[in-house]
């Protein structure tokens, strides 16, 4: 009988997922999605292949579960950080900083590569996790307009432009000692883009 980790089936499930996700996170950063195998993940996580297959029948389902877990934790972190700021300018700065720091911390395949690697339904599930982040950005942008912190613009246009700018890995792939300066330059860029400097 396989060894139960953590003393109960629920604790075992959480422990297996935590170990597997830690390994997957590292391997995505080191190798990229295409080079990952379930067998390799299981071995590196110290769990049996059958235990891994019980949780994740294929590589695609593993990636989807991992993204769902990461996204849920990030949305909580983002919500708490943004809501700690009263002024929309500070909220938008916080949003930009977190987006870029997370981009620097995690390596995921670019959207187009991910779309071609996954079945359409799996890709839609992963893409859906951007919705709460987009909703948070929309709330910041409309809140800034409501409080007169920047001029009214079509939020869909601003969201598309901000998202494109913050999704550029080149921003965070330079020397680590320069990252803070790059992030703050991006904050200033986004604030100027929404018109905060004009108010």
Automatic annotation (TrEMBL):
Q: Which residues bind DNA?
A: 37-56
Matching InterPro entries, A to Z?
Homeodomain-like_sf, HTH-type_TetR-like_transc_reg, HTH_TetR, Tet_transcr_reg_TetR-rel_C_sf
HTH tetR-type domain location, by residue? 14-74
**Origin, by domain of life?**
Bacteria
Q: Which UniProt keywords apply?
A: DNA-binding, Transcription, Transcription regulation
Q: Report whether Cytoplasm shows up as a keyword of the record.
A: no
* PROSITE patterns (UniProt xref): HTH_TETR_2
Question: Is the keyword Transferase assigned to this protein?
Answer: no
What protein does this entry describe? Answer: TetR/AcrR family transcriptional regulator
Which organism does this sequence originate in? Amycolatopsis heterodermiae
The uppermost taxa in this organism's lineage are: Bacteria, Bacillati, Actinomycetota, Actinomycetes, Pseudonocardiales
